[in-house]
Amino acid sequence: MFHRSYTTLALPAVVLSIVAAQDAAAQDAVGLAVAPIPSETEQASAKVIQKQGDAWVTLREGAGPFICIADDPAADGFHSACYHTSLEPYMARGRELTSQGTVGRPNVEQRMAEIEAGTLEMPSYAFLHAIYAAEGWSGDMDAVQRHQSVIYTPFATAEDLGLPTRATRGAWLMGAGTANAHVMITP
């Protein structure tokens, strides 16, 4: 009888321990996901989503100006990106196309065609922050290998902005003149 009671009492404790561990892991994922945002206030108010298997899961709701994509634990290395909420239609469409098997350059080209056709909403400008680390990353934020900021400026040209169109340290315009034109800012 004692053994049975012990087992009955131990089972809920094990379940609670597993739930607590999952909650701690989600909190860690949220903390790392919002790390690209420079402002602590905006970090605290950002919505955080994460790819888990084939599904996208909301780890934390947020009412702030950013949506953050937490690192995919199944992928090598580390990547987190936080973008302004006005980019959500563009980003959500990218996730939808990926789930349908359209990835890489064809995914971007499909979204550009939809923007040009007026069937996909794209803001006149919006900001994105990202951080990256290579395969084998240990979780040390001091070991993050690249910080990057991107300003989406659909249809902007080099002449409009006075920026080069080739990768350089500092700012340059990628996709000049296209629906996906954006200023890359790499320190």
User: Kindly state the mean pLDDT as a whole number?
Assistant: 85
Note the run of SSEs as H and E.
HHEEEEHHEEHEE
Tell me, what's the shape? Answer: globular
Q: First CA to last CA: what distance?
A: 67 Å
Rg, alpha carbons: 20 Å
Main sheet strand line-up: 2-1-3-4-5-6-8-7
Q: Determine the fraction of residues in helical runs and give it as a percent range.
A: 25-40%
Helices and strands: which structural class?
alpha+beta
Give an account of the 3D structure.
It is a single chain. This protein has 187 residues and is α+β, with helices and mostly antiparallel strands. It is 36% helix and 26% strand. The protein has five helices and eight strands, in the order ααββββααββαββ. It has helices spanning 2-33, 40-45, 88-99, 104-117, 158-161; strands at 47-52, 55-60, 66-69, 78-84, 126-133, 146-152, 170-174, 182-186. An eight-stranded mixed beta sheet has the order 2-1-3-4-5-6-8-7. The chain is globular.
Supply the key terms.
globular, 5 helices, alpha+beta, 187 residues, 8-stranded mixed sheet
In short:
The chain is of the alpha+beta class and 187 residues long. Helices cover 36% and strands 26% of the residues.
Topology:
Blueprint: H1 2-33, H2 40-45, E1 47-52, E2 55-60, E3 66-69, E4 78-84, H3 88-99, H4 104-117, E5 126-133, E6 146-152, H5 158-161, E7 170-174, E8 182-186
Parallel strand pairs: 1-3
Antiparallel strand pairs: 1-2, 3-4, 4-5, 5-6, 6-8, 7-8
Helix pairs in contact: 3-4
